[in-house]
Amino acid sequence: MKKGKKIIIAVTSIMLVAALASGITAGCLYAFGDKIIIGKTKIKEFTTENKNFKVGIISDTQLPPTEEALKESDLYVKHLKDALTTMKNNNVDMIMFPGDIGDLGTYFAFELYQSTIDEVYGEDRPIIQTVMGNHDYWNKNASTAINHIKAFKEVMNESPWTHYVVNGYHFIGASPNNGSMSAGYKVTSKWLEKELEKASADSQGKPIFVMTHNQPKDTCYGSDEWGDSSLNDVLSKYQNVVLFGGHSHYSVLDERTIWQGDYTVIQTQSLSYIELETGKENGTIPPNADQNPMGYIMEFTDDEIQIHRISFDGSESGIERKADMLWTFDLPYENDGKYSFENRKNRNEAPVITETTGRAVVNGENVELTFTAGEDDDFVHSYKVVIDGKDEKLFFSDYYNGIENMSKSVTLSLKTDGKEHTYKIFAIDSWGAESTDCVVIKTQ
């Protein structure tokens, strides 16, 4: 048997029900208004050839919704193909996909996702668990949630709400119940609570993996702006939950990507393009935002679970971007808070500015400030420019394209009024720690 091939040892199916179409009104169904969204759920069980197995996590392809759109650009399809090829070359046994398959929730986008998987894997697919995202409920024309769920189910041959057990580990795939950007889980959370009750009774010493599109609000990096507030009440009851979510597109190179509180949350970046937080002068979608698609390979051994951050660059095995800062969970599993923000902030060292001079060049309506990049025990996340001791401007560094690729020289562009100014530039790391020294640049 080929290495990594999956064997299904017990299969029971989830039924997805649209009440008005089927007339079913049985109990244990989860409804939104008069529409039954989620049917009664049973568990699919899998075992792999090797008990030490690997799970790939990728998200947010936002594939083109039509043939015409695909002809305009196939970049995101290429990114998906590169990611899947990396997974295959690394003998990944299972793939988790936390939603936003398409830019719009069309049959074409769903079918393109499936055909790309077929192109890479053929009939020897790994276990694949996919949930819907908010984009998968959207269309140019008005359409109900039920229609998008129906399209997903027909193309994927699976429900958007699933509960798998792989080698004894529970994986719960929880799609939102509508296309809301921030409140899509009011119905799903009721379903999720029942599935977590089942998993908890069978998961002593093991994490329970939950996959949603949004992260719970105010947990990991990006969830303050993009999180969903309807998830925490359920999840906070289960300390051994490890949740993977997409949606925000934030870079996984930032250590705030993993958060631990009452449970654990990890966000997955995107295979389409990077987006970052608001409030910086160089914008939420930075230059070359679509040049470093990333995700994870999670490796299970007898003693621990390792989470590798992988760039899907088209090479044979991908590039592991932070092997020296690998996230690990010891087994048996206990949420010991080692990845809480507080614990890691307390160990953090502020960045350093070693070269305190730079130069200013006026270029049209802008003044360009150029200086030697700051240094950090991880990386410089951003720079703060203080103008004449009063006004402050913030800029992202270029870390999101790979820390080893960061430029040694930084140029920041600001509007100029033609007057003399003194600019002081401080380096800031991802925990908000600021350099003591600064670059000082004066214009004449």
Which short descriptors sum up this protein?
444 residues, alpha+beta, Purple Acid Phosphatase, chain A, domain 2, Immunoglobulin-like, eight-stranded mixed sheet, seven-stranded mixed sheet, globular
Distance between the termini: 73 Å
Count of all domains: 2
Largest sheet: 8 strands, mixed
Proportion of beta-strand residues: 25-35%
Q: What gyration radius follows from the Cα positions, in whole Å? A: 23 Å
CATH third-level topology of the largest domain = Purple Acid Phosphatase, chain A, domain 2
Instruction: Give the helix level as a range of percent.
Output: 10-25%
Nearest-integer average pLDDT: 92
Structural class, from secondary structure content?
A: alpha+beta
Low-confidence stretches: 1-27
CATH homologous superfamily label of the largest domain: Metallo-dependent phosphatases
Strand line-up across the major sheet: 1-4-8-9-10-11-13-12
Second rung of CATH, namely the architecture of the largest domain: 4-Layer Sandwich
The rough form would be described as: globular
Number of strands: 24
CATH class identity of the largest domain = Alpha Beta
Number of distinct helices:
9
